[in-house]
Write a structure and sequence with these properties.
It catalyses: Hydrolyzes the peptide bond -P2-(S-farnesyl or geranylgeranyl)C-P1'-P2'-P3'-COOH where P1' and P2' are amino acids with aliphatic sidechains and P3' is any C-terminal residue. With 308 residues, the chain is mainly alpha-helical. It is built from 15 helices and 2 strands. A hairpin with a 2-residue loop joins β1 and β2. α1 runs antiparallel to α2 and α1 packs antiparallel against α8. It is globular, with a radius of gyration of 25 Å.
């Protein structure tokens, strides 16, 4: 800016105001509103997902094929519409992710192979004890087991088994889409990336409390055994499917197993190796650039620990 002074012209530099982050609400008086919108959006998704399971009135148990087929329909509809909730959240908060919605939700090719293999490997290490227990109790040897696993007939039977499709395919895909892919981008600008990673499973866990009432209703289990087995929490989906297959570790059965000592050693070794390898195998650098980090930069949090 030019100004006349003394014997001539001199330049006066007028500092420009610093550009506020696109989600200035996160650092200003609107921070609470933004967080409330994020939490309410996640609660709405969770309630919609669980509510879709009960739009069909039936006196049949949840494992009945007719019930499973009906729930497939409603859950797939809700899951397909769940990205719209992220778009609505973006409009309400004014946060512009700076990347495509699909990329933000985890649908991308960059780093897909380590993302598919390393988390599953880490989960299998954690389940080392149960895997040993399964192999000890299995009547067939390794060669016979591989033949069964690779046989087309076995897969054909699985694809016609409604319970298998629910536990290994539909539930992992739809639950991870709703409770992780959609919720994580909405929570991260409010809570930070680390807390958001641990908050999403809380929504997931609370949403699964309806299983308790169903099991009690049909007297499938006692209250104590239900709570002991309700701890299940391309990488998350595979791990989710694997955990659904394995179920909660049968620790009590391991304590009474004829080969108790090596089995318990396997349990301890699995947990120890899991804790040892958790940080190196989940290093973000292994999985390419993180779209969530771009979102946090847009939200004004450029120093997120997992993004540095």
């Amino acid at each position: 800016m030019a100004a006349l002074g003394g014997d001539g012209l001199r330049l006066l530099s007028v500092p420009r105001p610093e550009r506020q982050p696109e989600s200035a609400a996160l650092g200003g008086p609107g921070a609470g509103l933004c967080c409330w919108v994020s939490v309410f959006s996640c609660l709405s998704l969770a309630c919609s997902y669980v509510g879709s399971l009960y739009v069909w009135k039936s006196e049949l148990p949840r494992d009945h094929p007719a019930v499973i087929k009906r729930r497939f329909t409603s859950v797939l509809v809700v899951s397909s519409l769940s990205p719209l909730c992220v778009l609505l959240w973006r409009e309400l908060t004014g946060i512009q992710p700076g990347t495509s919605l699909l990329s933000l939700m985890g649908f991308r090719l960059e780093g897909i192979f380590p993302a598919a293999l390393l988390p599953l490997l880490l989960t299998m290490i954690l389940f080392l004890g149960p895997l040993m227990q399964l192999s000890m109790d299995c009547p067939c040897d390794l060669a016979d087991g591989l033949k069964v696993v690779l046989a087309p007939r076995s897969w054909a039977r699985c694809l016609t088994d409604m319970r298998w499709l629910r536990n290994q395919v539909i539930a992992p895909l739809t639950e991870e889409l709703v409770f992780r892919a959609c919720m994580l981008p909405m929570l991260a600008p409010c809570t930070g990336l680390g807390p958001a990673v641990f908050t999403c499973p809380l929504f997931f866990g609370v949403a699964h409390f309806h299983h308790i009432f169903e099991q009690l209703r049909f007297r499938q289990s006692s209250v104590g055994s239900i709570f002991l087995s309700a701890g299940h929490l391309i990488g998350p989906v595979l791990c989710h499917s694997f955990c659904n297959y394995m179920g909660f570790p049968a620790v009590c059965a391991a304590l009474e197993h004829p080969q108790r000592r090596p089995l318990l050693a396997g349990y301890a070794l699995g947990v120890g190796l899991f804790l040892l390898l958790l940080q190196p195998l989940t290093d973000p650098k292994l999985y390419g650039s993180l779209p969530l980090c771009v979102l946090l930069e847009r939200a004004g949090d450029s120093e997120a620990p997992l993004c540095s």
